[in-house]
UniProtKB/TrEMBL annotation:
Stretches assigned to the Plasmid pRiA4b Orf3-like domain: 6-172
Family matches, as Pfam families: PRiA4_ORF3 (PF07929)
Xref: InterPro entries: MM3350-like_sf, Plasmid_pRiA4b_Orf3-like
Designated name of the protein: PRiA4b ORF-3-like protein
Coiled-coil regions listed: none
Length: 195
């Protein structure tokens, strides 16, 4: 597989105004590592199960059978998605069902000024907090924290440590976290057992 970069855009579905990110990954990234990147750029905490749906096939972390999907760590994105404009889906947290659509915007993205091969370029709005109760729960949460007279205001302010801002997105913070991820997930020259 050639060493190409993919320009991707991910959007959390069913929420307006949109929560989205535009980011770059190498085309040879495995789906399990793409999951890691999505967790970082969206602001999730990797506390729940996930799956990708590409075409008619599902890819997940620990499928118990072929009906449950294919093992995502065995598949490279560039082998599954090749054409710009192609869309696929990412589901995070089977309980809250956070559905995302991912679009391959450019299949041969080049920018010599990129600091690393994995980088977030831009985005809008904060990701919902974990375990907030899917889209309806998130909308209620947002209403409650904005309205001091809401009966759940104090509870949600305490639950969220009082610092949630639905409009906030900081690309530089995300890229610092991606740099840590790249550093700590790199291939090593020797195994642990070097006897």
């Amino acid at each position: 597989m050639s060493e190409r970069n993919y320009l991707l855009k991910i959007q959390l579905l069913d929420i307006e105004p949109a929560i989205w990110r535009r980011f770059v990954v190498p085309s040879n990234i495995t789906l399990d590592r793409l999951h890691d990147v999505i967790q970082i750029i969206m602001g999730w905490t990797d506390s729940h199960l996930h799956e990708f749906t590409i075409g008619q096939k599902r890819y997940t972390e620990y499928p118990e059978s072929k009906e449950d999907g294919l093992t995502c760590g065995r598949y490279h994105l560039g082998n599954l998605i090749k054409q710009s404009g192609r869309r696929f889906h990412y589901l995070y947290d089977f309980g809250d069902s956070w559905r995302h659509e991912v679009v391959l915007e450019k299949s041969n993205y080049f920018n010599p000024e990129l600091p690393t091969e994995i980088v977030c370029l831009e985005g809008m709005r904060a990701c919902p907090p974990e375990d907030v109760g899917s889209v309806p729960g998130y909308l209620e949460f947002c209403d409650a924290i904005k309205d001091p007279d809401h009966e759940e205001h104090d509870h949600y302010m305490q639950w969220s440590d009082g610092d949630f801002d639905s409009e906030k997105f900081d690309c530089s913070t995300v890229n610092r976290e991606l740099m840590k991820y790249i550093r700590w997930s790199r291939n090593r020259h020797t195994d642990w057992d070097i006897s």
